[in-house]
Amino acid sequence: MKNVICVFALLSLLNHTQGASASQEEKARLAELDAYWTEVSRAVREGDFEGYKATCHEKGVLVSGTKKTSYPLSKALVRWKKDFTSTKAGKIKAKVEFRFSQRFGDETTAHETGIFLYSFTDAEGRWKQEHVHFQALLLKGKDGWKIMMEYQKSKTTKAEWDALTDDLKKQS
Questions:
Q1: What is the per-residue pLDDT for 123?
Q2: Domain that holds residue 107
Q3: What's the number of domains the chain is made of?
Q4: Which residues in the chain come in under a pLDDT of 50?
């Protein structure tokens, strides 16, 4: 009986240690992903097109739920470049923020779900905002995390954006 108790205690300790290790690995993975999204935000804010492009996988795909289209991110980058150039030149201002409702993956993959808030100035200098439900599929390679698929599902509201923050606070 003592042997059974010792084996059970040893298995419980091993299980707890593995759980703690997995939790630390998950925290480290999420910290890397947070750094990735911070870099995306920085590149948009500074109009750093090359920096933004470096966050995208060369075979990445953009999916638009509102337009019901799917095409290579490289084509979207061509279209977006003029906004980066205008931002860098100080003609407009732009920024993007991210909030997540679901984040899962492993050491080399991530599936992130949430809302992004893209804010920009129009030709008259007035701030405009777009809240968008999105999903992102990322891969980690030797040069870090890259977005493989960006699915801009649908427009949403500031209320949903605010509620997502409240939901995350409740989960903490």
A1: 77
A2: 2-171
A3: 1
A4: 4-19, 168-172
| CA–CA separation, 100 and 153 (whole Å) | 14
* pLDDT for the residue 19: 44
pTM of the full structure: 0.83
Q: Which residues have C-beta within 8 Å of that of residue 57, sequence separation ≥ 6?
A: 73, 139, 146, 147, 148
* Token pair recorded at residue 85: 């150039």
Cα–Cα distance, 8 to 162 (Å, whole number):
46
| Residue-level pLDDT at 3 | 52
> How far is 94 from 72, CA to CA, in rounded Å?
23
- Taking the C-alpha atoms of residue 151 and residue 172, their distance in angstroms, rounded to an integer, is 27
* Span 35-80, pLDDT tens digits: 999 999 999 999 999 999 999 999 999 999 999 999 999 999 999 9
Written as six digits, the tokens of 20 are: 């703690």
The domain that holds 59 is classified in CATH as: 3.10.450.50
What is the rounded distance in angstroms from the CA atom of residue 54 to the CA atom of residue 18? 35
What would the two tokens of residue 140 be? Answer: 């980690």
Contact 31, 110 (CB under 8 A): no
